[in-house]
Automatic annotation (TrEMBL):
This is CRISPR system Cascade subunit CasE. It comes from the Bacteria. It holds the Pfam family CRISPR_assoc.
Length: 243
């Protein structure tokens, strides 16, 4: 049986989060979506209980809203939270609150979804937008595919086995500059934090559950790459046909 999942809601002070990131040597100017800052803060605050995947909302306001899925409820997170003031000051009271996901999915249930995704694939140690990959081998005698159509195919493959994609809309797209730390190696023992540019796609649509167990696992894991940095959280609400 899959573990119970909770939807967590945390309100963060944007200025305090940026100050924390800068104290960690993370340049906010290179972390346009604040994904790495939030990732580092969650790890510092909650340690092994840091939730993921997560989604940041209201990037341009004084207060950020962070939604996340976790096996642990809000009290468990608070019990394991650091008391360090330079970390805790980013967390608005009362701290994380949670709601339990029903989890009693049934084959055939329909759900509407929203997904902020980073639709890339990795090949030969490099990442590339799945749309640009498709353009490397365009269909002969046909116009190039639309970005939305390529992303729809990519998402359908991500859901395969767990759910069937019934409708899809690419609601927003832009390239975003994000921060990622490199891994230490024998040749390069110091980790660096270069800025990279990646696609950021806001997708909405509808799906039908094919395998409830796999679907629950997919929610817990998240979709696509960069799931620990604010991408891949599948937000859901009942769709037509769910009882």
């Amino acid at each position: 049986m899959n573990p119970r999942l909770y939807m967590l809601n945390l309100d963060l002070d944007t200025e305090a989060l940026i100050r924390f990131a800068q104290d960690q040597g993370l340049n906010h100017g290179h972390d346009e979506d604040l994904g790495y800052a939030a990732h580092a803060w969650l790890a510092a605050c909650f340690g092994a209980f840091a939730p993921k995947p997560f989604r940041l909302l209201n990037h341009h306001g004084p207060q950020l809203r962070l939604l996340a899925y976790s096996e642990h409820d809000s009290q468990a997170l608070l019990d394991h939270a650091t008391t360090a003031p330079e970390v805790r000051q980013a967390l608005h009271p009362p701290g994380p609150v949670h709601a339990a996901l029903a989890g009693n999915w049934r084959v055939g249930d329909r759900l509407d979804f929203e997904l902020l995704a980073c639709p890339v694939t990795r090949r030969d140690q490099s990442e590339k937008d799945v749309y640009l990959r498709r353009l490397e081998n365009p269909p002969q005698g046909q116009p190039p595919p639309e970005r939305g159509a390529v992303y729809r195919e990519w998402l359908a493959a991500q859901l395969a086995g767990a759910a069937d994609l019934e409708s899809f809309r690419l609601e927003g797209f832009h390239l975003v500059r994000i921060l990622r730390r490199t891994q230490a190696t024998a040749a390069a023992k110091i980790r660096t934090a270069p800025a990279i540019t990646r696609p950021r796609a806001l997708c909405r649509g509808g799906l039908r559950i094919a395998d409830p167990g796999l679907f629950q696992s997919l929610l817990q894991r998240g979709i696509g790459r960069h799931r620990a940095f604010g991408y891949g959280m599948l937000l859901l609400r009942p769709g037509a046909g769910i009882s």
